[in-house]
Amino acid sequence: MNERDTLLRSLSALAFTLYDLQLYLNTHPYDMAALAHYTQHRQQYLQAVALYEQKYGPLTAINGASASTWKWIKDPWPWEYAANTEVN
Description:
This protein is an all-alpha fold and about 90 residues long. The chain is built from two helices and no strands. It has helices spanning about 5-25, 30-55. About 5% of the residues are buried.
């Protein structure tokens, strides 16, 4: 598995964890341990997104725009086959 795949898997796991914690916090809003856990994983997720986008480009169209370019259409998208195979 290459670094890109590893980052995508990490992002997927972190996103799942955050979603699961969101659902829990919807029914247990005063659980400070769960909130701390959510905050910690949110920071890890944001750092992983920043690292991925720095190396491989935007993960979403929202992050694909800058003042001078539309980066979203460059390179294969993360879910495309070409983005997930190593080229020799």
